[in-house]
Amino acid sequence: MKKISILFILIIVIANMHAQERKQPLAGKPPVVNIKKPLSFTLANGLKVMVVENHKLPKVTFNLTIDNPPFLEGNKKGVDELCSSLIGNGSTKISKEDFNEEVDFMGASMSFSSSSAYASSLSKFSKRTLELLSYGALDPKFSQEELDKEKAKATEGLRSQEKSVSSIASRVVNALAYGKNHPSGEFTTEESIANITLEDVISNYKRRFVPQNAYLVIVGDVKFNEIKPIIEKLFGSWQKTTTNDITYPDPENVALTQINFIDVPNAVQSEISVVNTYNLKMNHKDFFPAVIASYILGGGFNSYLNMNLREAHGWTYGASTGIGAGKYVTSVRSSSALKNNVTDSATVEFIKEIKRIRTEKVDTQALENAKAGYIGRFVMKAEKPESVARYALNTEIEELPADFYENYIKNVNTVSAEDVIAAANKYFLIENSRIIIVGKGKDVIPGLEKLNIPIYYFDKYGNPVEKPTFQ
């Protein structure tokens, strides 16, 4: 009898466990994220400074950003990239060796580019860290020897990517989507690197590394009243420079869906990208519906594209969608690397899933899961100093409401299934998209031609060519 009673109890316990497993857990309350507001001041030269005090840990980060609009580099494309490589590589105020030695001694980290500078350190070294940051950013030492080294590295990098399908795709997708006469569409070549002189690099720095478009965001264990005079001393003499910003016409999408094919005879797989351009600012009402629609389509493991191409068919390790938003024209790109023999079938599935999110109301649970995933990413980033700095910077540059990030989670949660469809129809323009495929033409073109989608051929640099003769 005792054994029977124990067995009976076990059966009841197991039954209850299974019942609980079948029951969908209730959603908890949305997390509350406390985004600290910066204290701000502006120098006479235009540099805007934002300080977010956080004394939980004895650390501090410095983020200097130059908010310049995109610009064409033409036959010297790569000059801005080389400028990035040389800034911080020595200063007129301190030798390269002493600079690096001090950074290592403090356990700090520091990096520079043609439009930014970053440093982090323990707060007890904050003053010296900021001094070194200003030396590297405002008094860089450009030398022919260092330029020659960076040009050689850049050239070697281009040569190593010559037969890489993913590298070719990355280059050609932007060239075709934006046009090579647009800043977002031009790309670096060996010839353009060879054209660049030291004077070009110096001129690029003087013309674009200017305080009137600059923001310095400081986050961490510092006191506003103590750091302010240090900043005024270090950055107050930074001279304004007259800038002539050039605007470019927005690229136009194609009139009808088309395949743009780039033949890489040695390719063992195809890279498919479905892309179109548009304008979407972060302060626009469509921002949250558009990013949630993108997340559902290709932003997470359970997204439409990934569940179709990877889980259902086993054609790829992953498929994704990336969506842009900001002050300038941007694009949405759905992409994946797949086996050659399924390139035509995968193209059909890409189109099907994009049409699906434009016409089929997303399942309630799928929508809630997408929101939860997106919010989860936001919450995990929100406490990081670099995120706090980015939020403060975005609020200024993107002209966001002061409470944009405080209301971020609430705005995500208000997105409805109808909002998703509306945003998908407005920004995922499948009827006006380029399906850019980089792959082995001999293996994939016969199948693609059966899809009755116009096919146009281009070389590895985005130049139109006749249909190749496949051997």
UniProtKB/TrEMBL annotation:
Domain Peptidase M16 C-terminal: 195-373
Alphabetical keyword list: Signal
Peptidase M16 N-terminal domain boundaries: 49-182
Entry-linked InterPro entries: Metalloenz_LuxS/M16, MPP/UQCRC_Complex, Pept_M16_N, Peptidase_M16_C
Signal peptide interval: 1-19
Domain of life of the native organism: Bacteria
Descriptive protein name: Pitrilysin family protein
